[in-house]
Amino acid sequence: MPRPSRCGDLLARLTELGGVATTADLVAASSKAALRRCVADGLVVRCGYGVYTLAAFADPALGGDAPTRAWARWQEGPSPEEIAALTARHAIARGQAGALSLLCAAAHHGWPILREPTQIDIALPLHRKPPEGTGQVRRYWARTLSTTELADSVTDPLRTVIDCARRLPFGEALAVADSALRSEAVGAIELRAAGAAFRGVGSRQVRRVCDLADGRAANPFESALRAVHVDVPGLTPVPQFEIGGDGFTAHTDLADERLHRHRGRQLRLSR
Questions:
Q1: Packing angle between helix 203-212 and helix 157-167, nearest 10 degrees?
Q2: For residues 32 and 3, is the Cβ–Cβ distance under 8 A?
Q3: pLDDT digits (tens, 9 = 90+) for 198-220
Q4: Which domains are delineated in the chain?
Q5: Most C-beta atoms within 10 A of its C-beta, which of 92, 172, 197, 216?
């Protein structure tokens, strides 16, 4: 009689390990034959040297197929589809022995972002030979990655904000920085100090994003709107500005405090 397949044991162990495991882990839970069979049947995919992932994690939803978070407010948690995409990206980064970066890292930290990433950005330590990957993976090399970042397979919050400020369009980068401050994963003083200390290509935008970041922004779309208005001469937009009078209080998405006070003074003088 043929020996019973141990593919079930292998898949159970792979699921238990979060969808990514080494050859040694899988063989110990099943057998080399079971691993070859699962790969041949398309149940398991090799995502790095000696690293395998569930097939469902090998091709995460990206770009236009993924739901946008531009209008998301902080009380809105991710949908099941978003959780699946986040898990898949993280599994691939672990398989590549790197760390999620840029928008992928921002989304992994739980920050609402202006748009979903269209590729999986993975940071690798300097001089590490790039592992095999898919066409969706775009890598870049960081000068240093901490032990924690490599263990967590995601860049830390401060590095994530700085990387986005350096590499993304201004509006998208400001949305990430606002979200980081609102989540309290990064402090305002810490962020401005990091921006002031940054040197190299993109340093001008990094400093600008860090200086203008404001955790009061209600959502990424509001951050992008502010990014447009900061270039209007004589205008200093403030997010969620409080206005009121005669027992009435409201918060506007954007307002210029100086112009608001000037308008209030004009109204008082006209009475």
A1: 120
A2: no
A3: 999 999 999 999 999 998 888 88
A4: 7-55 (1.10.10), 63-229 (no CATH), 237-270 (no CATH)
A5: 92
Number of alpha carbons in the 13 Å side-chain half-sphere of residue 266: 6
Structure-token pair, residue 169: 């369009």
242 strand-pairing partners: 251
Q: CA distances (Å), 116 to each of 63, 112, 220, 223, in order? A: 6, 10, 12, 16
Pair of tokens at residue 185: 């994963």
